[in-house]
Design brief:
Length: 459
Amino acid sequence: MRGILPVISRMRMDHDGAGSLHMWGDEVPVTADVRDGQPVLETSPDAHFPLVIRCTVNGDVLRMRFTNVGVEFDLTFDRAGEAEIAAHAAAQPVATPAPVGPDVTTNGLATAPPMGWNSWYGLRLRITDELVREVADALVEMGLRDAGYTFVTLDDGWQGGRGADGEILPNRGFPDMPTLGRKLHDLGLGFGIYSSPGPATCADYTGSFGYEEQDARTFARWGVDFLKYDWCSAGALYRTEEEMRGIFQRMGRALRESGRPIVFSLCQYGAFDVPRWGATVGGNLWRVSYDVEDRWESIEAIGFAEHSTPVGGWNDLDMLQIGLGGLSDVEYRTQMAIWAMRSAPLILSCDPRDLSASELHILTNRDIIAIDQDPLAAPVERHRIGAVDVWVKRLRVGHAVAFLNRTEDVVEARMTWEHIGLAHPARTRDAWTGVEAPASPEWSVALAAHESIVLRLLS
Ligand code: GAL
């Protein structure tokens, strides 16, 4: 499972100072430089996890230090410049036992799937207070807040170590967290933040390991309303389901005791069937997959995967990719349709100022948002008619039906309402076109590659 250290398994360096690291199975280019007489390795700033790694040389051995994780790797290169990880964990922290205790009582928050914006895909590690304020203003001006996108979450990259008293500190990009929190609240937005149960986050920033209660209190004091808690380096310390549940529960309980209502968002990529137990550790939503990407294959794989029905919270299919530029409007509509039919959190992640008019329309579609937020939160019934996937969701009033084409071809199917277990409605409204029409007893749909049609059935 990803997140278990060492994240780096192999490394190659050429004599001219260029090379690559194997991180989580991916080959990441690095360049070597010398600063203050010691080697420094650096990934490209565009890398998924940009890193600057300080090194020391001792005879033939290169020691790489990941400052935030507190882990050191020793590498001995052979003549061809190849090195396997020789040793690690010079200073690796020791796991504190975190036995699973009684269920955390519900905080009563997130009664509908949370909606908002998260910095990760649009800004990555470039986030600063200033950019987040600009995004927050844009969410208001562009009508996204009023459409329901209210949580503004700083993902990885805001942290800057700890003070002498152990208090977690923001980095230079965030001069004053409580003031940022107030600014968001004044705009009618919620303040979200990110941490990890491990000593370091996935991008090697300070995690909450060993400081859970103190961090929960700090976040409460800053006015935080939402915490995304990402497994990352905790995988080096905790391996079993019991251990994972215990350490998430430690933060869940700390948040409940912090005196502030804080939505708790678990991120452990769906391990150990989390929909069954996420709420017992205080979670309100939990990721059920690895990271979504701005590619059709990723949307399809995550969107169509089956998961256990969530108990007491929401299955998080990860963020909306709309506005990031990798897909067509047709495909972005299909992501939105699938997420809404599955009652998934709707968290956009591009810089909203980059949205085209049509993408903004997709994100603010009232029928689609109402389907997502419907209070019944009924699981979809899946049918397949010919090559068309037909999903039916019972709503508090009526039903929604989504026709989805996950293939590369134009597909067509004839059907009746009985085929999909429904009584013949009087009228339908097409969520994407807004067209209302009388419903005929038998009809056909034709869908372009990756296209979706979503109908609301009206009596
Ligand atoms: C991943 C997580 C992403 C993002 C990233 C930050 O593990 O799934 O959503 O938070 O870490 O480093």
